[in-house]
Design a protein that fits this description.
The complex is a heterodimer of chains A (248) and B (529).
Chain A: E1 12-23, E2 26-38, E3 43-48, H1 54-61, E4 69-74, E5 77-78, H2 84-93, E6 95-98, H3 110-121, H4 124-144, H5 160-173, E7 178-182, H6 190-207, E8 210-215, H7 218-221, E9 226-231, E10 234-238
Chain B: H1 2-13, H2 15-20, H3 22-53, E1 56-60, H4 69-80, E2 84-101, E3 104-115, H5 117-123, H6 126-129, H7 145-167, H8 172-176, H9 212-217, H10 224-232, E4 244-248, E5 253-257, E6 264-268, E7 275-281, E8 289-300, H11 305-308, E9 311-315, H12 316-322, E10 337-342, H13 348-358, E11 364-368, H14 369-412, H15 414-422, H16 427-458, H17 460-471, H18 478-481, H19 492-519, H20 522-527
Helix pairs in contact in B: 1-16, 3-14, 3-16, 3-19, 4-13, 14-19, 16-19
Amino acid sequence: MTETISMPQPQLAAIAVEKAYRKDKHKVPVLHGIDVEVNKGEFLSIVGQSGSGKSTLMHLFGLLDTPDVGEIYLEGQQIDDLPEHARDQIRNHVFGFIFQFYHLLPELNLLENVLSPLMIRYSTWEYWKKRKQFKQDALEIIEKVGLSHRIKHRPSELSGGEMQRAAIARALIGKPQILLADEPTGNLDSSTGKEIMDLLTNLNEQEQLTIIMVTHDNLIASQAHRTVRLREGQIEVLGKSQSTSVPA
Amino acid sequence: MYKSLLCLRYLRTRYIALASIISMTLGVATMIVVNSVMDGFSTDMRDRLRGILADVIVETNSLDGAPNTQDLKDSIQRAVGKDIEGMTATVEIYAMLSVQYGSEWQSKPVTLIGIDPATKATVGPLSKYLVNTNEASVPDWELSPEAMAYRKEWTTRAQWMVDRWNHNPPPMEEEATPLETPGSTEPLAPPEFDSKPDSDSPFDSKPQVADKENQIANPFDKGLSEKAFGKEEKRDPGSPLKGRVYIGYGLVSFPYEDADTGETKMFQIVKPGDDVKISTVTAGHPPEPTHFNATVVDLFKSEMSEHDSSLVFCNLEYLQEMRGMIAPESDERSITSIQIKLKNPEDAAMVVSKLEEALPAGQFRVRTWEDKQGPLLAAVEVESAILNVLLFLIIAVAGFGILAIFFMITLEKTRDIGILKALGASSNGIMSIFLSYGLALGLVGSGVGVIVGLLFVRYINEIEKFITFITGRKVFDQRIYYFPEIATHVEPMMVFWVALGAMVIAVLASILPARKAARFHPVESLRYE
C-alpha cells in the first residue's frame, strides 16, 4: 500500500502502524496497518469520517501516542520507541501542532502563548538571556499571522479565527520542520476557515514547511498537494500529488 | 520558565486555592501567638524566679544552719569559683507573720529569709521588686523619709492614746471597735494612709520593742503588749525597730473590684513604717518558739503571686540574733543557705553536680531554682507542647484542604497539561508546576500567617482591651493571672520552624495531585473539550 515516491527518503513515514484503544475490557481497533510517507515541503491532508482514525494517525506522527504495531520514522530514524525525554524534545523541536479547539493556555496572553514552546525548550536562565530575541521573533510571527494588535489579549478575548492564528504562530515559533494540523478549520466559519487555509498554504509554498493536515472536509483537503483517505482504520484512496483528482 | 510563569498565573487567577490556605494562615498565626504568649509567660516567670531565688541554692538540711560560713563559701569558691558571679549567705526559715488590721490580728505562714541586701544584690535584682525603692540603688534597711514621717505620725498618735488611756481608761468596747468592720455590707473603701483616721491606728499594737531575752525565754508571756509599751517610754517611739523586713505585697494586700468603676484595685493594710509581728522557732534542740516585732521598710512585689504571698525578707543579723544562731564564745554566725548566681545560667546542672561532690553529703542540699519551681514551669511546658501538637494538626488539616483543591485544579487543567505536553513539556516539568504551585501557596499562607501572628502578638494587650471593651468582660483578669499585662516573647527560631512546617505540609499535600497531573496522557487530555 506504499506510494511510489521519487525522493529517496521521506521526511516522515508511518510503516504498518496499528493502534487500538481499550475501553473497559473491549479492545477498539482504530488503525489497521497504515503506511503513509510525507516528503519534505509536502502538504498532505488526511481525510476521513469521524472515527476513521485520522486524528490517531496524526497523534502517532506527532509522538503524542505510540503505535501498538509498526514504526514511525523521521528522516530515516525510528522515533516511536525513543525514551520519553527524547520524544518530548522531538515534539518541541520538530513538530508544530495546530488543534481544532486552538488549545491556547487561558492564563497566558497571546504573546506568552506564542512564546510557550521556547519557554519549554530553554531553561529559565537561557530563556532570560535570550528573551529579547525571542520576543522579537514572536512579534514578527504574530505580525505574519496578522495579530499585532492583540498581543496582550487573553485567549478568552479573541475570536475563533484569531485564536487559530495565535495557535499557528505558537506552532511556528520553534521553527518546526513539520506542522501537524488537526481540523484547523473545524471550528470556524467558512470565510475564516479560508483565511486560515490561505495562511497554511502560504507557509507551505513560501517556507517549504511540511504540513500534515487532518480534516473531514473534502473541500479543505483539496487544497493540499496530496490526500490520504482513511476509512475504518485503513487507507481507502490515494491521491497522487496535484495531478490526482480529489473527489469533492 | 513556563513553570514559574504558569505557577504565578495560577496563584493570581485561582482564588479558591487561596481560600484553601486560609486555614493554614490561621493555624500559623495561632501557633505563633500561643507560643509567644506561653514563652512570654515562662520567660517572665523564670526572670522573676531567678531574681528572687538565684540560680543555685546550697541549703543545710538542718534548720540550725551551718556555723562556719566562711569555710562553706571557700569550698564553694574552690569547687566552682570560675562559674560564679555572686553569692550571698541567707537564713531561710518558716515563720508566721502577724499583722494587725483594725482590732483583728491576721496571721499567715511565710518563708522568712534573712538577707544581707548588699550581697543579695549581686545574686539577683532585689531592688527591682521593691515597691518604693529605686531600681538602680542597692537596697538597705533604712526607712525612706516618707516612711519615717508616717511612722512618726502614727507612733505619736498612739503614744497620745496610750497616755490618755493611762490617765483615764475608757471602756474597752468603744475603743476596740474599729471604724471599718470586716464583714459589713458596705464595700471597703480604699485605704488612705496619709490621712489615716485616729481610730484606724490600733493604739495597743504598733510600737513595740522586742525584748530578746524575755521573748526567747517566755515567748507567750501574757500582757506582752503592755510590757512592750513599758519599754517604749525609754526610747524614741518614732525611730524604727531593730528588726526590719521587706514584706511580700500579696501578704498585706487584697484585690477588690471598685463598685463604681469596676476596676480592680488593691487594698493594702500595711505600708512602709508600720510594724509587724513575726513568730518562728529558734535554732537548737528542741526548737523553741520565738517571736519579735519588725518595722516594714518596703513592700516586695515580684508579680509572682506565689512569692509575693509567701516571702518576707528580714535583716540577716537580727534574724540570727533572734534565732540564737550566734555562738556565744566565738561570735560565729550560722546560716542555712547560700544563694549563688552563675555567670551562665545554662551551667546550673553542671555546677550542682560539682557542688554535690565538693560539699559533705548529708549536711547540704544543692538545688537549682528550677528544681524548686520545677512543677510550675514543667506544667507550662507540657501545656505548650500539647497546644503545639493540636495546632499543628490544624495546619495538617489545612494540608488536606490543599490536597483536595489541588486535585480539582489538576482536573480543571487537564487540557492545559495536554497542551503543554504536546508542546514538548516533560512529565517532570508538569509535576514541578504543581509542586511549585503548592510551595507558592504554602509561602503565601505561612507568610500571611506569620505577619498576622506577629502583629497580633505585638498588639495583644490593645486587642485584649478592645475585646474587653466590646464584650464588657475582662479577658485577661489581673486578679487571676497576676501579671499586669500579657507577657509575650517571640522566639525567631520558633517562627521559622512554624512557617517551614506549614510550607512543607503544603508541598507534601501537592505531591499526589502533581504526580497525577504528570501522568496524564497527552492524547486523553486533549481529546475532550
